[in-house]
Amino acid sequence: MKGGDRRHLLSSALILLFALTLIFEMADTAATATGAAPAGQPTVQIVYTERPQGNEEPEAYHIRILSSVFDSEDAAKEALLYSYKTAASGFSAKLTPQQVEEISKQPGVLQVVPSRTLQLHSGGHGRLH
Length: 129
Known about the structure:
Helix 2 (58-67) packs across helix 3 (73-79). This protein has a 4-stranded antiparallel β-sheet with strand order 2-3-1-4. The chain is 44% helix and 19% strand. By secondary structure, it is of the alpha+beta class. The chain has helices at 3-34, 58-67, 73-79, 97-104; strands at residues 43-49, 80-84, 90-95, 109-114. A hairpin with a 5-residue loop joins strand 2 (80-84) and strand 3. The longest helix is centred in the first third of the chain and has 32 residues, at 3-34.
């Protein structure tokens, strides 16, 4: 086997190894993110909404939307984790699967997606790889 052929074979094998490692890491991250809470338990959801109309403050608008799936405004305030006001309009809140289904049907709600936390992996010496 010629030197050029060996290098080509080695580089192809390294690329394949890297691709497989990346696929397994992504699968592991996805499995961890989706299995975070038992069925029926509240999980953190990101609720994208239309911008509030008129002079209504974004947080008040978000609490009003949340109140539609909770027994009280106080319970809605407790479930609200963060109001997004600048680049996007929406909020994060702890919701059960049933509440996600209900809030998705509310006027002004554009989309509800699970919140995900992604971890960067480092090489142990402060370098990312």
